Amino acid sequence: MTAERRRQDRTRRPAPRKQGPRRPPVHDPARRAAFDVLRAISDRDAYANLVLPELLRERRITGRDAALATELTYGTARAQGLLDEIIAACLDRPLEKVDRAVLDGLRLGSYQLLRTRIPHHAAVASTVDLVREEAGSHVAGFANAVLRKVSEKDEQEWLAELAPDPETDPIGNLALRTAHPRWIARAFAESLGDKGAELEAALRADDARPAVHLLARPGEISAEELAAVTAGEVAPYSPYGVHLPAGTGDLTESEPIRQGLATVQDEGSQLVAVAATEVGLTGAGDSRWLDLAAGPGGKAVLLGALAALSGAELDAVEKAPHRARLVRRVTEGLPVTVHVADGRDPGLAAGYDRVLLDAPCSGLGSLRRRPEARWRKEPSDIPDLTRLQGELLGSAIRLLRTGGVVTYVVCTPHLAETEGVISDAVRRNDGVVEVVDAREFFPGVPDLGEGPYVQLWPHRHGTDAMFCAMLRKL
Ligand SMILES: C[S@@+](CC[C@H](N)C(=O)[O-])C[C@H]1O[C@@H](n2cnc3c(N)ncnc32)[C@H](O)[C@@H]1O
Fold first, then answer.
1. Same domain, 314 and 388
2. Which of 8, 187, 253, 277 has the most Cβ atoms closer than 10 angstroms to its Cβ?
3. pTM of the model
4. Residue-level pLDDT at 11
């Protein structure tokens, strides 16, 4: 499937199945919606957070049904690997041999049995109905039998049976208990330097539904005013942040967002962008700023608004034309010029005072916001990413003036993408750059470790796991 096709698919609602039995009228809109989104995730690499809200709107599913559909979709997608291990233990054939639609039904049913208070008979009967509608009556008996087996034990009993021994394989044990792929749990452990209580806290925080964070656009509205009109709370660290409770629904229609006063943005993203504008420069000049990987524009909005307040101008570079269009749209009215270009050689004149490189990355730090993502990523994704990150960082350094600072940001704690990329760049640019202790530019943020880099964490800071390093050109 081409990237373009995949992109289009992600924005489309799940297509009705062309063959197979006709669907009877929908009696159970919440479960039907959850099932259809799970089908779109497995069949077409769709994103739950794009497909579900659209589908709820189209089918006019609201209130309790919408809440149930959201809980079932996100919960099932997030726990997929754990659910698959349990389902596999109830089968007399390999999991791969189970029809994909039936497997999605089994996942949805198992999630209800193991992680909700829905009565077992309702979870089993409703799932068997969905599987029958989708795949035919011949598989209803099979689905019923598997779900009955799943229901014989609760989650803890299944984990006691299936999880690796915590003494000999602590990472494997925690990975299964918190429904993470082992390689991701290992990446977290290596970054934290811990395989015990802190790793567990990090994985559990990564498995919980996050609060919604808003950015109060500087110069438009204060965080206090935004908190008052949204009934939210002023964020603990970002001067522009507001927190809304986890599970706050679709915000596109909310007044401050419609009026362009606020955008949805994780507090960690706000902190790194603010830090990039605060880090001390040496030598004269602080008016040319560059965002070298800007799409879809979240940080460019904040940088652009702060540039406007301080008399600076921002160039925003983005390789993908459709993402560059998004940057243009969200930064309208700000002193921002958008360039569709490859950041490795964008054709811009060097001499920037500040560069933010928010590099393409594995995104392991924002898995809690994208429920299906953890089961889709592969360790083999990392080498290509670190190569690109290193090349973009080399370009950022070339584009700086002497005394200027590049702020390197990735939304992942994976050491290859964080400290690995930075130490490689420092080695290649020996005598050209010096590392700045980034912690100083995160005032009031606790638990930042020994520096000089900053790694934010959901369990410590309530933010995505953003990494930030700063290099000054000598
Ligand atoms: C992590 S995202 C940036 C997020 C953005 N800063 C924000 O806050 O909304 C990385 C972006 O880099 C873009 N990108 C990938 N390769 C690039 C390249 N060689 N040059 C410029 N941009 C690139 C991707 O299309 C993506 O939009």
1. yes
2. 187
3. 0.92
4. 40
